[in-house]
Amino acid sequence: MAITLRNKAVEERIRVIGRRTGEGPSAIIARLVAAEEPDAGRVSPEEAEARLQWWKTYVASRPRWTEDELVASKVFEESMYDENGLPQ
C-alpha cells in the first residue's frame, strides 16, 4: 500500500534524516514506527518458556565435546587476541 505524504515539512524532515543516516524514506518510517511500538517483538511468557525448553532439548541432544576438542578450542581462542585483549 502506497502512502502519500501531503505535509511538505514532514517530507523534508524525512529526507534530511535520510541524508544523515543513509536510509531511504521507507526505512526511516519503519524505524520510527518500530520505536513507537517497543513491545512489538516480544513474545508471551508461555512462548518464551516453550522456546527455552526447545533450546534446552536441542543442547542436550548435541554430543559432548571431547577433551581434544576442548583443548583445540582453547588454543584457537587464545590465538585470536593478544595480551591486551585486541584481535591479532
Number of helices: 4
User: What spatial form do the alpha-carbon principal axes imply?
Assistant: flat
Question: Residue-averaged pLDDT, rounded?
Answer: 92
Percent range of helical residues: 55-70%
Radius of gyration: 24 Å
Summarize the helix and strand pattern as letters. HHHH
Number of beta-strand segments:
0
Euclidean distance between termini CA atoms = 49 Å
Are there runs of 5+ residues with pLDDT below 50, and where?
none
* Beta-strand content estimate: under 5%
Estimated structural class: mainly alpha
Tell me about the largest β-sheet.
none
Q: Could you write a compact summary of the structure shown?
A:
The chain has 88 residues and is mostly helical.
Mind explaining what this structure looks like?
- With 88 residues, this protein is mainly alpha-helical.
- It has 4 helices and no strands.
- The protein has helices at residues 8-21, 25-36, 45-61, 67-80.
- The longest helix has 17 residues, at 45-61.
- The radius of gyration is 24 Å and the shape is flat.
- The termini are far apart.
- The model has no long low-confidence stretch (mean pLDDT 92).
Keywords:
88 residues; mainly alpha; 4 helices
